Amino acid sequence: MSMFWTIWISVITLGSIVGCYILLRWNLTNYTGHPEGESMGHEFDGIVEINNPLPRWWTILFYATIVWSFFYLALYPGLGSFEGFWGWRSSNQDIRSLEESAQARIDAKEQGLIVEYDRELDYAAEKFDPIFEAYAQVPVEELVKNEEAVKVGQRLFMQNCSQCHGSDARGNMGFPNLTDDDWLYGGSGAKIKETLINGRVAAMPAWIDAMGEQGIKETVAYVLSLSGREMEENHDALAEAGKARFMACAACHGMDGKGNQMLGAPNLTDNIWLYGGSERAITETLTYGRNGVMPSFKKTLGDNKIHVVATYVYSLSN
């Protein structure tokens, strides 16, 4: 934080405290011209206003809060860039990566700083790590029968995966539906864990240069026919021509178009589409290609928590 903002915040904060003290002293002095304990000459609905001083207990408490505020500002960060004499902070600031966060935790402990976020992480690890370790000893296909473990996995899913796959795990355009038992890389417990641990990088190349617009149109017609659908015009002729062109696609999707989980190539015959199955969407996919990335969660969650998340995901389609 710059010196300007440090001074600005300090002046406002300290000025407010001093202002409260001045206001309190002002109200402790009788400027009314009426003796204390006597009527002010005002009456409202039978209620007479008496010139009474502020209650003594209330005044003492107000003084105490003012004194405490100075101790608080001296111990804790609160005046701009001043970090306080106690060495407490809510979290390590200016962190931009997991590596920086891990190093900042080490540096804070070496410097004797009290970082509240780090303390909460340590407490959570001490309390919950043994639970996750116990869950990790049970295969996903067996752990799915443990309702409490599945609920824990669901909460972790909501925190880490729902941003892309949705809170109901039904996905969105470009993000797979995890509830329909249609898997690009396989839906076993081991495969789901593999995806979460290592992430996935998929690439569908653009074919416009190799096929041209007419070739794309013919291939789209054939791909539509694989799932029992047709184009509006001249479908049969286009599909027949596209069947020969599909040989270039068969390297990944297979001769029958049923895909290849080793490569993450989708099944084109089941009418389940990651980027949309309309004529326009398929044309766009073939023309420009697609690039999908599933990030690795190994550093974020660790193996044991990934095991529990995989259990929840496995439960959605089993």
From TrEMBL:
UniProt cofactor note: Binds 2 heme C groups per subunit.
Organism: Alteromonas alba
Residues annotated to bind heme c 1: 161, 164-165, 294
GO molecular function, one term: heme binding
Protein name as annotated: Cbb3-type cytochrome c oxidase subunit
PANTHER family: CBB3-TYPE CYTOCHROME C OXIDASE SUBUNIT FIXP
Annotated positions binding heme c 2: 204, 249, 252-253
Oligomer status and interactors: Component of the cbb3-type cytochrome c oxidase.
